[in-house]
């Protein structure tokens, strides 16, 4: 086991709205080792982005991190940090890449200057040196003609290049933890492949840990060491990438894996879908949140939240099917290792 | 199989836009294809390759710069008056962005029934309401939704409203312009299943534009691959994936992520360097030459024509 860089313990985040308290994240715990990639996978609204924002300290009113939640970075609880300490942590220790690069970059500032600004704010370089280093960073993330490109504005960049520029900004202070919130969702497949390759390469070179947040299991397969599957504010299954893809244990993970379009499916054959919608987190159900959409639902599922069952090697799933009293159910399919290749 | 009857024939279609400084953006440059009745033609390519512009020009939304688009034998761009109205009933579009394509000030019933009103398809108000309920039911919503506004719905539900609107006028042909790109994977599957089911029930013809190749393969009978305003390959969907001939198609297919860690970690990707180049006054020769690993002198000199290399398999490459 590697050294723990980040530990999230019983994280609970709520948003106070007119309608009441929306419990976006309901007790999430996970750990990230130094230099590893952890993926958090789930549908829109499952709380994965809120989890990411909590780690970066970006939860603002009307959002609230509930008392009792702990986020330990190298052993220190970041939720108890003072404003000055936050500034040192955010950007220098931990940086974030957002989904929408166009709205995350300042449209009125030249790209090179935005990157240099990060270095200047953190006192890493003087004006001239920062400008030089910004060009260097752009070169490192694979932008051609970085000297000229640094003088341009974000709207002159293509989608893939903007994403690269944002990665360059995030890397400016050599953070140890990189949080990537849907970094490839808005991009074409070819550009998506480039960005994923770039992230892998940078991770090798810099040794930073990555928390990758996405709804696309296909993207995760090639990069993540560990995967957490989130559903309605809870982690329902976690394990190594191989365990999750080859021996998934939770019906929600089964459904997610089946919904991914595969090239080996027959033409126009009906795709597996997940019927229904996730529960309303204004009044989350007492039982398993997936029970209304689950074909294996039992009476107990509606009443009580299932505990995590341990399958060894860190593989856990929260489902009553794994209780010794439950009927034996086989996974509805086996993910064949040879499937899907071209 | 029955004799294939063409529904939409696109011949040497061109669409140029003027750009700053007297330059020309050749968004669609000499594209030809035919869509037969009852089939789904998929159209794939990266952002900015002109697939939406091509579809919209073929539908007569944009005036063309050259070539022609024939719908049931008649030139789409020359239709006027009653003929044009009739065409707009027969051919519909489902748009990509379910947020921007629904009027926020209209109720769902009015959005769906707009086409019914324009084409006078309902005799009276009761019939109109009845039809709206039927359409809502068909796309998996219910009649309580009729008097709500678009902002009250999720992305997947909005896309269903967009589909109901397109189906309201009993069209023969629907252009689906990236109808699933803005949605979650599980919702994408629902929408695709719905489109396939409706096609089967009503014998519709689709032009399905997308950049998600796995989904396109699933829904399409034939697939056209577009690159920078031109078609580079066109064939049956199974064959395109089994035996892609154009280097661009090969690279595009190898970029699809596979939900299987072992394959992902071991397989070799054909890497495409850089972005799609600018379509402003493109240089002569093959448009893909700048990013292709097999470029030769001829590629930079001569533009390859789309030719049939085996029955039903069209490729535009000098090396094939």
From TrEMBL, chain A:
Keyword field contains Methyltransferase: no
GO molecular function: ATP binding; ATP hydrolysis activity
InterPro entries: AAA+_ATPase (IPR003593), ABC_Ni/Peptide_Import (IPR050388), ABC_transporter-like_ATP-bd (IPR003439), ABC_transporter-like_CS (IPR017871), Oligopep_ABC_C (IPR013563), P-loop_NTPase (IPR027417)
Subcellular location: Cell membrane
Record-level GO cellular component terms: plasma membrane
Domain ABC transporter intervals: 6-257
Domain of life: Bacteria
Bilayer disposition of the protein: Peripheral membrane protein
GO BP terms, alphabetized: peptide transport
UniProtKB keywords: ATP-binding, Cell membrane, Membrane, Nucleotide-binding, Transport
Family to which the UniProt record says this protein belongs: Belongs to the ABC transporter superfamily.
Name this polypeptide is given: ABC transporter ATP-binding protein
Species in which this protein is naturally found: Lawsonibacter hominis
TrEMBL record, chain B:
Top-level taxon of origin: Bacteria
PROSITE patterns: ABC_TRANSPORTER_1, ABC_TRANSPORTER_2
Lineage: Bacteria, Bacillati, Bacillota, Clostridia, Eubacteriales
ABC transporter domain ranges (all copies): 8-253
Transport recorded as keyword: yes
Listed PANTHER family: D,D-DIPEPTIDE TRANSPORT ATP-BINDING PROTEIN DDPF-RELATED, TRANSPORT ATP-BINDING PROTEIN
InterPro entries: AAA+_ATPase (IPR003593), ABC_transp_ATP-bind (IPR050319), ABC_transporter-like_ATP-bd (IPR003439), ABC_transporter-like_CS (IPR017871), Oligopep_ABC_C (IPR013563), P-loop_NTPase (IPR027417)
GO molecular function, one term: ATP hydrolysis activity
Keywords of this entry: ATP-binding, Nucleotide-binding, Transport
CDD domains: ABC_NikE_OppD_transporters (cd03257)
Similarity comment text for this entry: Belongs to the ABC transporter superfamily.
Gene Ontology terms: biological process: peptide transport; transmembrane transport
Protein name: ATP-binding cassette domain-containing protein
